[in-house]
Design a protein that fits this description.
This protein has 320 residues and is of the alpha/beta class. Helix content is 42%, strand content 18%. It is built from 13 helices and 9 strands. It starts with a strand and ends in an 11-residue tail after the last helix.
């Protein structure tokens, strides 16, 4: 049996809100073509929102499933179906955060926009359609001999993000550190056997050898290819070697696509809480997605209220 792992992030560019990195793990039978997940699950899983239906859930790059003002329905359909398949149904934002990233709870609770808010989910999808999709996807998985094994996230809020950037003096290196820490934890939980993992490229980096040595210090890392299109390695102990690729548009790989959806949905829930907190205190305040130009506008708009509440800049603002 082979394990397929995919990672992806959301929130790398903004100055407000968290960076979120996620990893999904799938189990496929011997001889299964790792590139064939979409084909094997085609009766219940679609590679785009346009091909989704009442019987098919879209699992794709989150940027293709969500845009500001476009609603969260497709992200919710895919992610909340996955959580039910894992036996971790979530009816509220806090419950979902705790299921995907329990370690972030202390830092979330330090943030006033998270500490006193717990939004019911789904927001745009209907609970009945999610329940129906779970049945269709489970049948497709069983027919193909495929199993969704795990889905985990790391939400890095501004204070922790700033510490990482200061430590590594590079936003890209900070992203790689979070991703490879999450990947190493995922691989450590797997039994012996072959693993194939795909990560989206990090900030244009082509060489990951030193980073892999840092995160897999007790295992030989083999360099197989390092190029602009893809960088390939083998890592891990002899009994559980993992073929690892960092590739452009890595989210076209289904496990990475689900990771992309988890990351984006957690970030959007966080930004909804953030905007609701400040808009509840400042009449007429326009919400923000947190990206640099509008983030500066938003920070200026809330300056007086933030000073009155004595909220430290480090809890709010990412330095890069």
């Amino acid at each position: 049996m082979t394990y397929l792992v995919g990672t992806d992030e959301a929130g790398y560019g903004p100055n407000l809100g968290p960076l979120v990195v996620s990893a999904s793990v799938w189990h496929v039978p011997d001889g299964f073509d790792p590139e064939g997940l979409y084909a094997a699950l085609a009766d219940a899983v679609a590679p785009s929102a346009g091909e989704a239906s009442a019987r098919r859930v879209a699992i794709a790059d989150s940027k293709k499933l969500y845009s500001p003002g476009g609603g969260l329905r497709h992200l919710e359909r895919g992610l909340l179906v996955a959580m039910r398949l894992l036996g971790k149904p979530a009816a509220h934002a806090r419950e979902l955060f705790d299921a995907l990233d329990p370690a972030s709870a202390p830092e979330r609770d330090e943030l006033p926009w998270h500490a006193d808010r717990d939004e019911a989910i789904p927001i745009d999808a209907k609970p009945d359609e999610i329940a129906e999709l779970v049945a269709h996807v489970r049948r497709a998985l069983d027919a193909a001999g495929v199993r969704l094994v795990d889905l985990r996230s790391r939400a890095v809020f501004p204070a922790a993000f700033n510490r990482l950037v200061t430590r590594f003096d590079s936003k890209g290196h900070a992203l790689s550190h979070v991703t490879l820490s999450l990947l190493a934890d995922a691989l450590a939980r797997l039994p012996d056997g072959p693993v194939r993992a795909v990560c989206d490229k990090h900030g244009g980096r082509d060489r990951y050898g030193p980073l892999l040595a840092e995160h897999f210090p007790d295992a030989l890392s083999e360099v197989h290819q390092e190029s602009r299109a893809v960088s390939r390695y083998r890592v891990g102990p002899r009994e559980r070697r993992a073929d690892l690729a960092f590739q452009a548009k890595g989210e076209t790989w289904l496990p990475a696509a689900l990771a992309s959806m988890a990351s984006k949905y957690l970030r959007e829930l966080s930004m909804r809480a953030f905007n609701a907190f400040w808009r509840g205190r400042i009449e007429g305040l326009r919400p923000t997605a947190g990206y640099p130009q509008d983030a500066r506008r938003f920070r200026a708009d809330i300056a007086a209220a933030r000073a009155e509440l004595a909220i430290a800049d480090d809890l709010l603002w990412r330095i890069r």
